[in-house]
Amino acid sequence: MSLKPVKIMYMSPLAATGDHDEIFADMARTHKLPETEVHITSLPASEGGFTHIEFRSYEAMVTRGIIRAVRAAAREGFDALAIGCFYDTGLHDAREISGDMIVTAPCVASCEIAASLANRFGIIVGRRKWVNQMHNTVREHGHEHRLSGFYHVDLGVNDFHKDHAETERRLIEAGRKAVEEDYAEALILGCTMEVGFYREVEKRLGVPVIDPSIAALKRAEYGAVLKKQCGWVPSRRWSSESPSEDEMVRFGGFDDGEAFGSRIIIPAETSGGPARKIA
Predict the structure, then answer these.
(1) Fewer CB within 10 Å: C terminus or N terminus of the chain?
(2) pTM for the full model?
C-alpha cells in the first residue's frame, strides 16, 4: 500500500545566500520518499543577514523568526517541519505554537537514529565553542549515556565548503579518534552544513555516519507518515500547552511581515510537477 502524500518543510534559520538553499534542496531530492512534497525555506533578510548562528546571541536574534516561520508553516497545513540547525534552536518554543504539525531538529533526530543503530556514538563538531551547548541538548534528550564524546575539527560553519579535501581529512581524523580510541560504534556530523561528507567518512571508518540534515528531514517525514497513518499528533497538555490564540493576537509579533525569505518546492513525484524556486 502506498503512503499517503505528506508535506514537510526543511527550514534554515538563516538568510539564504549563494547556493545555501540549493544544497538542502539537492539533499531533499535525493532522500525524500516519492510521495513526499518538501519545501526548503530560509528566513527573510529582515531577521538579519546571518550565515551562521554559532553564538547564543545570534540564536537569540533569529529565534523570533523561527517562531513566526513555524506558525506560518502550521497555518499552511504542513504535516511536519525540521529546524535546520544542530543547536536545535527554538525547538521547544516552536513546538508550543505548531498546532498539529510535527517539529523536529537535527540534534534530536540524529541522536534518535544513532541510538537505533548503535549502543555508543560520537559527535564530530566544527569548533570547541559548540560542545557545551550541544552536550546539554544530548543530555536533555536522554542520550548522554550513549555518547563517547565530542570531537572538534577547528572549522566554523562558513568554513566547511571552502576546501572539501581538507574538511574531509579533518572529519576522518576526528572520526578515527572517536572509533578507534573511544570505541564509538556510530558517528554524527554535528553541523547541518556538512551535507555530503558522510559517505566518504563512513567508507573510510566502517561505522554508520549520520548526516544531521538528512536525519532531520527523514525524522520529520517519518513523523508526518505516522501522523497520517496512525493519527499521532503532538500533545498540547501540561508542559506542551500552547499559548492561546487570543493572547498571541493581542501581544502581536507572531504574524507580522514575511515569514520566509526564499522557498524551493520539491513536489511529490506523483504530482508530476517540477521543482519550483520562490525568491
Answers:
(1) N
(2) 0.93
